[in-house]
Specification:
alpha/beta; Rossmann fold; globular; TIR_dom; Toll_tir_struct_dom_sf
Length: 87
C-alpha cells in the first residue's frame, strides 16, 4: 500500500483543470479572451475540443467525450444566447 503522505489526491492526478463546453458561435470568445485569461494569465490547463485536446474532437461520440471529461477537475459551461438558441 502506498504511503498516504505521498499519494496524490484524485483531483491532483487529473490531466486537465477544466473542460470547456460551448457552442460553435462562441468559438472566437472561448479561444480569445477566455483561453488567454485562464491558460496564459492563470496557468490553467483547459480541455478544448476544437483544438483536439484529449479524446474529444468535433463529431466524436458521447463515450469519447465522457472519457475526456473524466480527466478534468472541473467543467465550465458557456451559456450564451447562441447556446440557448442552438438546436
Amino acid at each position: 500500500m502506498a504511503n498516504p503522505l505521498f499519494r496524490k489526491s484524485k483531483e491532483e492526478a487529473l490531466e486537465y483543470d477544466a473542460y470547456v463546453a460551448y457552442c460553435d458561435g462562441d468559438n472566437k470568445w472561448v479561444y480569445g479572451p477566455l483561453r488567454s485569461f485562464l491558460e496564459e494569465r492563470r496557468n490553467y490547463t483547459l480541455l478544448l475540443s476544437d483544438r483536439g485536446d484529449g479524446d474529444v474532437r468535433p463529431g466524436q461520440n458521447r463515450l469519447a467525450i465522457s472519457n475526456s471529461i473524466s480527466k478534468c477537475k472541473k467543467m465550465i459551461l458557456i451559456i450564451s444566447n447562441e447556446f440557448v438558441n442552438n438546436e
